[in-house]
Write a structure and sequence with these properties.
Chain B: One of its GO terms (biological process) is L-valine biosynthetic process. Chain A has about 160 residues and is α+β, with helices and mostly antiparallel strands. Chain A is built from four helices and nine strands, in the order E-H-E-E-H-E-E-H-E-E-H-E-E. Chain A folds into two domains: about 1-80, Alpha-Beta Plaits (2-Layer Sandwich), CATH 3.30.70.260; about 80-150, 2-Layer Sandwich (Alpha-Beta Plaits), CATH 3.30.70. In chain B, the strands form five sheets. Chain B has a six-stranded parallel sheet with strand order 3-2-4-5-7-6, sandwiched between helices. In chain B, strands 15-14-16-17-19-18 form a six-stranded parallel sheet, with helices on both faces. Chain B has about 575 residues and is of the alpha/beta class. The chains are: A alpha+beta (about 160), B alpha/beta (about 575). Bound molecules: thiamine diphosphate (TPP).
Chain lengths: ~160, ~575
C-alpha cells in the first residue's frame, strides 16, 4: 500500500538526515520526500511517500515520532487529502511536434515557461499519477529532461496538521 | 557571569551533579580539561581507551538511577567511543557523551582529527547535537541530560568545537527544559489499564514476562508487589534479571534462547501474557510465526510506542512508564477486591511444576575438571547472592545469568542488546565507582577480557578492588558451541592460541592473580579473593573446554523447540 506521511519537524541542521537515516537504517522505502520551512520558520513540513504494509507504516509513524526533532506525524492517506507535485519537463519542440506539445500542455493544464527555437520547458502540477500520464501521453523520444519535486500533501477540510 | 565555553561545560556538569566523568584527553578538549583541573566537584577518571570510558559511564548509570557521563576528544576519540555508545543505545542506558570537535572554521576541511561525529553516531544515539555557538552550550547540555534520562532512556552526544570552548558568554543554567517536539508519555491510559486488570483477573493460565524496562524505571518493588498479590508465575529476561527476586518460587528464571524449559513453555502456552518493559526480541521469543501458533491474549506495557506490536501483535497496549502503570494496576486491583480464579491457577502451577521437574539447569559436576556452572554457583554462595555482577559476552555470560540468582535490581550488568565483548571490566569499574565498598565481580572469558585488558591499569590507578572471574576455556566458547551444533565440529578460528598467563599479567599491572584448575579449590579461591577488600584479584579458572550452554533454542526456531542437553543433539 502507498502511504503519504506528513510531518512537522524542527527546522534544525541534521533533522532531515535523521529522518532519512531512520528509513535506510530500518530498511523502509521512500518513494519521494519533500521538505521546506512553514509559515513559522522554526518549523519544517515534510511529506514522505512510502510503500509498505499497514504494519510497516505503523512502525514508520512510530519511529518518526520517536525522533527528538519530529513534532507531529500523520498518515494523510488514512482519509481525504490532496496531493500535488510539480514537474518541469524539457521537450524537443520542432516541426509538427511543436504544435502537438502545446496542445498536450493545454490538455494537462500545463504552462510553457521557457521557449527556444527547438525546445519548450513546461510546468505541470497535479497528482503524481497525472504527471505520470502526461509522460505516457507524449512521445518519449522527445523528452530531454524531467525534474519532479515529489509529492506534497495536505488533509482536506478540518484535518489540520499544526501544533 | 561571563565564562568561557569550557568553564560553562564544567559548570553544567556540576549543576547536573556529575560525580564521575570518564574520559580521555586530546587536542580538541584541552580547554575543557584545563577547567577540570581547576575544580574538584566533578572527578575525572582517566581510562586507557575511550570505549572503556563510555562503558564505565554506562555501567555507572546501569547500577544507579543516575545518568552516566563521558568526555572524549575529536576524531579517533569519538570513533573509539562508538562501540560504547551503540552498546548503551541498544540497552536504553542514559549516558551523556561530550566530544571535542575541530574548530568551527575547520569543519568540513578534512582537518586533523576531524570526523563527522554527529553523523557517525546518529544511528546509535537517542539524540545528538553539534554546538556552534558558545551561547548554546548550557541549553544543549541541559537538554542532553533531560533527553538521556526521560522517556525510553538512551545515550546523547554533545559535540563541541574547540573554538567554542574558548569563546565567552554570560552563563546561567536553565532550570527546566521545554520542547514541543519531545514529551514522553508517563502515565498509562486508565481505560487500557482497566482492560488489562480485567484480563489478568479472568486469566486461567497467566504469565508475566518482565524485561529491562522494569529495571530502567526502578519498578522492581511494584512489579514484585503485583506479582506476589496475584500469585502469577514470572520470567525475567536477560536485561530484566533482578526485577523480581530470582530465588522466589514464583520466578521461572530467564526466557529465550538460553532460558529455562519452564519459562519458555509457560510463555508459549499461557492464555494471558503480561509483558512489562520487554520487547519480544528475537533472542527471547525466537520465530514470531511459531510464537503466534498458540492463541493467547497479550498485554504490553512499554514507554516506547514503537516497541509495541513491532514483532508480535498485542491485544492491550499500554504506553507509559512501567512504574507508573504498575502503580495504577495495583491501585485498580485493590479497588476491585477481586482475585484470580484460585482453582485454575492451581492447575496451571501444577503444569508448570511438571515442566520444572525436568530440571533443565542440572549439569554433571566433576571432581576432576572445573565446570563453569559450578564456579558461578560458588560465586553466588560466597557473595551471598548480593554482589554486583558484570559480564562480558559468550557462554560465561549465559552461565552467570542462569546460575547467579539476582534478587535485586541493578545488580546485573551486561550487554544484552549489542552483545559487546569487552564490556565486562569497564562495567565493573563504573559500577565500583558508583558503589565503593560493595563487592563487584566481573564474570568473563579469556577472549572477551582481552578486548579491554588495558583497563587493568585504570583499576590500579583508582584502586578498584574488583574480582575478575575468568572462565577460561581456551575457546571462543560460544562460537565453538555453534560450530559444534551447526557447522559439523569445524572449529574455524575459535581456538584461542597463545594466551597470556593471566595471573602473571594481573601481577604485572600490580594486582593479585590466582590460577585455579581443581574443582576443590574453587570456593577457597573465591573466598580468598573477596576477603581482599582493597585488591583487584584476577581469578583465572581453567574450566572444561567442552561444556555447552543448555537449554538452547536455535536461532530462528520456535521458543519451545529446545535442545535440553547433549542427548538432544
Ligand atoms: C566485539 C565482539 N566481537 C565478536 C563477537 C562474537 N562473539 C560472541 S561470543 C564470542 C566468544 C566469546 O569468547 P569468550 O570471551 O572466551 O567467552 P566464552 O564464550 O568462551 O565463555 C564471540 C567471538 C562479539 N559478541 N563481540
Amino acid at each position: 500500500m502507498r502511504h503519504v506521511i506528513s510531518l512537522l519537524l524542527e527546522n534544525e541542521a541534521g533533522a532531515l538526515s535523521r529522518v532519512s537515516n531512520m528509513f535506510s537504517a530500518r530498511g523502509y522505502n521512500i518513494e519521494s520526500l519533500t521538505v521546506a520551512p512553514t509559515e513559522d520558520p522554526s518549523m519544517s513540513r515534510m511529506t514522505i511517500v512510502s510503500i509498505g504494509s499497514d504494519d510497516v507504516v505503523e512502525q514508520i509513524t512510530k519511529q518518526l515520532n520517536k525522533l527528538v526533532e519530529v513534532v507531529k506525524v500523520v498518515d494523510l492517506s488514512e482519509a481525504a487529502h490532496i496531493e500535488r507535485e510539480l514537474m518541469l519537463i524539457k521537450v524537443r519542440a520542432t516541426g509538427k511536434d511543436r504544435e502537438e506539445m502545446k496542445r498536450m500542455a493545454d490538455i494537462f493544464r500545463g504552462r510553457i515557461v521557457d521557449v527556444t527555437e527547438s525546445t519548450y520547458v513546461m510546468e505541470l502540477t497535479g497528482s503524481a499519477t497525472k504527471l505520470d500520464s502526461f509522460i505516457e501521453a507524449i512521445d518519449r523520444s522527445l523528452i530531454l529532461e524531467t525534474v519532479r519535486t515529489g509529492v506534497s500533501g495536505i488533509g482536506r477540510g478540518d484535518r489540520i496538521l499544526r501544533i | 557571569m561571563v565564562l568561557t565555553g569550557a568553564e560553562i561545560v564544567i559548570r553544567c556538569l556540576q549543576e547536573e551533579k556529575v560525580e564521575y566523568l570518564f574520559g580521555y584527553p586530546g587536542g580538541a578538549v584541552l580547554h575543557i580539561y584545563d577547567e577540570l583541573f581547576k575544580q574538584e566537584k566533578v572527578r575525572h577518571v582517566l581510562v586507557r581507551h575511550e570505549q572503556a570510558a563510555v562503558h564505565a559511564a554506562d555501567a555507572y548509570a546501569r547500577s544507579t538511577e543516575k545518568v552516566g557521563c563521558a568526555l572524549v576528544t575529536s576524531g579517533p576519540g569519538v570513533t573509539n567511543a562508538v562501540t560504547g555508545i551503540a552498546t548503551a543505545y541498544m540497552d536504553s542506558i542514559p549516558v551523556v557523551i561530550i566530544s571535542g570537535q575541530v574548530p568551527t572554521g575547520a569543519i568540513g576541511q578534512d582537518a586533523f582529527q576531524e570526523v563527522d561525529s554527529v553523523g557517525i553516531t546518529r544511528p546509535c544515539v537517542k539524540h545528538n547535537m553539534l554546538i556552534k555557538d558558545v551561547r548554546d552550550i548550557a541549553a544543549a547540555i541541559k537538554k542532553a541530560f533531560h533527553i538521556a534520562a526521560t522517556g525510553r532512556p538512551g545515550p546523547v552526544l554533545v559535540d563541541i568545537p574547540k573554538d567554542v570552548t574558548a569563546q565567552k558568554c554570560d552563563f546561567s543554567y536553565p532550570k527546566s527544559v521545554a520542547m514541543r517536539s519531545y514529551n514522553p508519555v508517563i502515565k498509562g491510559h486508565t481505560g487500557q489499564i482497566k482492560k488489562a486488570v480485567q484480563l489478568m483477573l479472568d486469566a486461567k493460565r497467566p504469565m508475566v514476562y518482565a524485561g529491562g524496562g522494569v529495571i530502567l524505571s526502578d519498578a522492581a518493588d511494584r512489579l514484585t508487589k503485583l506479582v506476589k498479590a496475584l500469585g502469577f508465575p514470572i520470567t525475567n529476561t536477560l536485561m530484566g534479571l533482578g526485577g523480581f527476586p530470582g530465588t522466589d518460587p514464583q520466578s521461572l528464571g530467564m526466557p529465550g534462547m538460553h532460558g529455562t524449559y519452564e519459562a519458555n513453555m509457560s510463555m508459549q502456552y499461557c492464555d494471558v501474557l503480561i509483558a512489562v518493559g520487554a520487547r519480544f526480541d528475537d533472542r527471547v521469543i525466537g520465530d514470531p510465526a511459531h510464537f503466534a501458533q498458540v492463541a493467547r491474549k497479550i498485554i504490553h506495557i512499554d514507554i516506547d510506542p514503537s516497541s509495541i506490536s513491532k514483532r508480535v501483535k498485542v491485544d492491550v497496549p499500554i504506553v507509559g512508564n512501567v512504574g507508573d502503570v504498575l502503580d495504577e494496576m495495583i491501585r485498580q486491583l485493590e479497588a476491585t477486591g477481586e482475585r484470580p480464579d484460585a482453582e485454575a491457577l492451581g492447575t496451571w502451577w501444577k503444569q508448570i511444576d511438571e515442566w520444572r521437574a525436568r530440571d533443565c539447569m542440572k549439569y554433571k559436576n566433576s571432581d576432576e575438571i572445573i565446570k563453569p556452572q559450578f564456579v558461578i554457583q560458588k560465586l553466588w554462595e560466597v557473595t551471598k547472592g548480593d554482589a554486583f555482577v558484570t559480564s562480558d559476552v559468550g557462554q560465561h555470560q549465559m552461565w552467570a545469568a542462569q546460575y547467579y540468582k539476582f534478587d535485586k535490581p541493578r545488580r546485573w550488568l551486561n550487554s544484552g542488546g549489542l552483545g559487546t565483548m569487552g564490556v565486562g571490566m569497564p562495567y565493573a569499574m563504573g559500577c565500583q565507582f558508583a558503589h565503593p565498598g560493595s563487592p563487584v565481580a566481573c564474570v568473563t572469558g579469556e577472549a572477551s577480557i582481552q578486548m579491554c585488558i588495558q583497563e587493568l591499569s585504570t583499576c590500579k590507578q583508582y584502586r578498584l578492588p574488583i574480582k575478575i572471574v575468568n572462565l577460561n576455556n581456551r575457546y571462543l566458547g560460544m562460537v565453538r558451541q555453534w560450530q559444534e551444533f551447526f557447522h559439523g565440529n569445524r572449529y574455524s578460528e575459535s581456538y584461542m592460541d597463545s594466551l597470556p598467563n593471566f595471573a602473571k599479567l594481573a601481577e604485572a599491572y600490580g594486582h593479585v592473580g590466582l590460577e585455579i584448575d581443581k574443582p576443590g579449590d574453587v570456593e577457597g579461591a573465591l573466598r580468598e579473593a573477596f576477603k581482599r577488600k582493597t585488591d583487584l584479584v584476577f581469578l583465572d579458572f581453567k574450566i572444561d573446554q567442552t561444556e555447552n550452554v543448555y537449554p538452547m533454542v536455535q536461532g530462528g526456531k520456535g521458543l519451545t523447540e529446545m535442545i535440553l542437553s547433549s542427548e538432544d543433539l
